[in-house]
Amino acid sequence: MSDAGEFVDAALQREASWERAEDWAARLGHALRYYGSSVGAVRGTIRDAGRRYPGLARDEVTALASELWSVPVFERRLAAVVLLQSNLRLLDNSDLTRIEGFVRSARLRELVDPLAVDVVGPMVERLAAPAREKADAVLDRWAHEADPWLRRAALLSPLRALKNGGGDWDGFARRVNAALPGSPGSGAERSIVEEAASKVVAEVGMTRPELTLPHAGRLGLSPPRRAGRC
Fold this sequence. Notes:
The chain is built from twelve helices and no strands. It has helices at 3-14, 18-28, 39-52, 58-69, 74-86, 96-106, 109-125, 131-144, 148-156, 159-163, 169-179, 188-207. Helix 3 (39-52) packs across helix 5 (74-86) and helix 8 (131-144) crosses helix 9 (148-156). The protein is globular, with a radius of gyration of 18 Å.
């Protein structure tokens, strides 16, 4: 393990709480192990690591993220997400391959959603052509994937930009149609994807009611809530 990886892991274990670990396991399941560190402790650990190991280059940051992710401990994987979020300026479209691997193995909203909303989306928004075009092509492919978590990530990725008045609504609508074809269903995998689409439609609709999604009802999506309504 690298010095930085050992530092992060040791700091997370110092913040461990068996009560919190049991709570994480009850909420998120037993596919991962849990130290019992709080989300605040995870964020604080990554801040401390940034001070202890300043000036990490892109390859060092992404290697550290992979190192943290490689051990199936929830707090380590969340720390990898926070690390990438804290170093967005270093990332580009070529990092989507690594992130895709993270999404495929995460299988938890608590990891997939921040990867999509806080890492993939902001990273793609800051890219210039042709890197942006390549990244958009990757997200288009994710929307067609059999893996529902990749489809969820593709739909959630533009949420921040859309809420802030930017983003590519047409691209989002295109991916919804790819990710949720046909009639609404009740399967667990479809619900993973449908929930993401409904979240974007609802949250963006509160401040940008002019943006509408054709065939939202046919796809089984919740209607957007308007600002000022209960």
